[in-house]
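Comment thread on ticket #2218

A.B. wrote:
> Attaching the input chain for the structure job we discussed in standup.
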Amino acid sequence: MSRIDAYCQARPLADFAQAVWTSIFGSQPGPATHSIKVADYGSVDRSCLIYHEAKEQRDSIYWEEFAGFTNWLGGYLSGVNATSFATDNVLGNGKLTEALSWLDTYCTAHPVTPFGAAVDALVTENQR
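C.D. wrote:
> Ran it. Output below, let me know if you need it in another format.
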């Protein structure tokens, strides 16, 4: 009940059923929190190196690939915002462009890390 209460206090306009559903299925984002294998879509398993290469290239093929990364990022962060008990905006006052800048630095240092894990690190960093 305390989890439902916390959810409702953070989101007073949310439906009670949504609070219950979120409480039952958990509120922690990220692949490590799933107890069963889930379907992954988009750029989650692509490496940080591929993300970086796509961003650096400006031709249409790579630019479309980079757009796939940014679209996946936006969807993932929106999902975190929708299900988190702690916040309704995981980036706080930050913007998506700042998140991309953070990911650029992280991915440069961790080129073989999957993009999804890098985004998970971004979420963890912003929840501190």
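A.B. wrote:
> Thanks. Noting for the ticket: Residues 48 and 120 are 13 Å apart (CA to CA).
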